[in-house]
Amino acid sequence: MKTRISFAELSARERVRALLDPGTFRELIDPFERMRSPYLAEQRIVAQSDDGVVVARGTLGGENAVIVATDGRYLGGSIGEIGGAKIAGALECAADAWARNERTRVAILFDSGGIRLQEANLGILAVAEICDAIVALRAFTPVIAIVAGRVGVYGGMSIAASLCSASIVSEGARVGLNGPDVVEEEAGLAELDARDRPLVWRATGGRRRHAQGQATRFVTDDVDVIRAALHELAIHATPIAPIAPKIPIDPTLSLADFDRELGRRFS
């Protein structure tokens, strides 16, 4: 009987390696490049050499693939300027490859609390660039989100995950715009007790999100099962076009007139 290997227990780098075809893992901008955040030392925070993001190339089912992963063990997988640029750049390179007729499968392993508060607006900009890159890439190929780590996905990165073509979640996954601690702090215990772990999972857990139609596949925390689901979705998920074409916005329009113009163009 084969021993189950927990996906959640692996590091971000181990997760990527486990999903790519054996022997094909090649990391881009690895820790030896020393691409670390320049803002954390002044805040007395040790900067990690990969800024908490792993980007790798390899093959998936014999086809070229790019897989990126956030490291939930470093500052909660939060996204700052460097890590965000690594993710957005990898997705943009994949889109360029498709434009050259080079088939490239793409997956994003989310394990992130969202924007890195220590980098403030730079983190917001980074997440915006990631979202833009996902939407552009979806026109070429399915972009698969995998949420099966310890942190789950919250904040701005949950928006990025929702923009993906399809998603895989595990029992331990949590998906939400605001984390339970944030909800409790802002709205009080009457709204949500963040220490009530069963309640948190009933509200935002992977099983719940799948039942709500917010996740494509619900899987057990097993590397082989998640790999099989990724292979299936990478092949059979239907690529989708960008949400809407870019529209020049007349800054003189009132909000009501702008709403009417959008309704006219997309009716």
- Computed Rg: 19 Å
Which percent bin holds the helix content?
25-40%
Q: What is the mean pLDDT?
A: 89
Sketch the topology as an H/E string, one letter per element. HEEEHEHEHEHHHEHH
Outline the low-pLDDT stretches: none
Give the class-level CATH name: Alpha Beta
Question: What's the number of extended β-strand segments?
Answer: 7
Assess the beta-strand content as a share of residues.
5-15%
**Number of helices, counting only DSSP H or I runs of 4 residues or more:** 9
3D structure, described in words:
It is a single chain. Helices cover about 40% and strands about 15% of the residues. The chain has a single domain (about 10-265), classed as Alpha-Beta Complex (2-enoyl-CoA Hydratase, Chain A, domain 1). Helix 3 packs parallel to helix 4 (about 155-165). With about 270 residues, the chain is an alpha/beta fold. The relative contact order is 0.13. The chain is globular and about 50 Å long. The chain starts with 11 loop residues before the first helix and ends with a helix. It contains nine helices and seven strands. The mean pLDDT is about 90. The longest helix is centred in the middle third of the chain and has 19 residues, at about 80-100. Strands 1-2-3-4-5-6-7 form a seven-stranded mixed beta sheet, with helices on both faces. The chain has helices at about 10-20, 80-100, 120-140, 155-165, 180-185, 195-205, 205-210, 225-235, 255-265; strands at about 25-30, 55-60, 65-70, 105-110, 145, 165-170, 215-220.
